[in-house]
Amino acid sequence: MKTGCIELANYKVISFDKIPSTQTYAHDMIANGRGADHIAVLADAQSAGRGRYKRTWISHHGNLYVSFILSCEERDARLSYAVGVAIAETLIAFGVTPTIKWPNDILIDNKKVSGTLIEYSGRFVVIGIGINIKTNPTVNADYKTTKLDNYINVTRDDLLNKLMRNLDKWRNADFCDVRTRWTELAAGLNRNVKYRGETVELIGINENGALVLRNGTHYMLVYGDEITMDTIIS
User: Fold this and answer.
1) Domain architecture of the chain: domains with CATH
2) Local structure of 60: helix, strand or coil
């Protein structure tokens, strides 16, 4: 059920009590010709929330679930890093010390507190962001999550307001600055990670947004694949 439509931090915010997915709703708006730059689709809860690789995003009441529709003429691998930095800086503003797991998962104490799904549609990009505030899902023993309530007292609306401003700031920043800040906040740099079943070293990102990995003397540039932290190497 739709609960409101307001202007906030230069965004038109369309809010719902509960819908299947803010991401799907945003795509439907674009497909129906109602998409426009700086629209935010917000929901108190989702019945069919989704993350990367079509994974289910458990979406109980009390957290932040939002999808941003933004003008974007072409795909840009660097966008993921700007979004990650924007979310991290938002949490920092409220007194939390996060790290970023490539490319833009946000961790606190090595536990996931926020995830992002970036999808392109025509001349728009849809950026879906979920941040655990009051609840965090139990997935499995190897997939640890946390919530902001364990660390700070913050309302969803205050978090959203700051996130919108940081999203605009870092999307429009020079990528050199984004890359520097992402590197400062990145988890696992110069440590071993798993990539396609092999143990490689995570070196960083280059000026085009490619992930730089090293296997012995061989360097690899990776776009869009998933890596996992090697649980054997401390």
Assistant:
1) 2-185 (3.30.930.10), 192-229 (no CATH)
2) coil
User: In whole angstroms, what is the distance from residue 78 CA to residue 74 CA?
Assistant: 12
User: What's the whole-model pTM score?
Assistant: 0.90
Residue type, 105: D
CA–CA gap between residue 57 and residue 12 (Å, rounded): 24
Query: What are the tens digits of pLDDT across the range 188-203?
Result: 899 998 888 889 999 9
Cα 77–chain centre separation: 14
Q: Which of the four pLDDT bands, split at 50, 70 and 90, describes residue 218?
A: very high
Residues composing the chain: 234
In the sheet with 192-195, reading across from the earlier edge strand, the strands are 218-222, 211-215, 198-205, 192-195, 227-229
Bridge partners (DSSP) listed for residue 19: 46
Strand partners, 99: 107
Beta-bridged to residue 14, according to DSSP, are 5, 41
Distance CA 137, CA 128 (A): 18
Kind and range of the H or E element at 90? helix 79-93
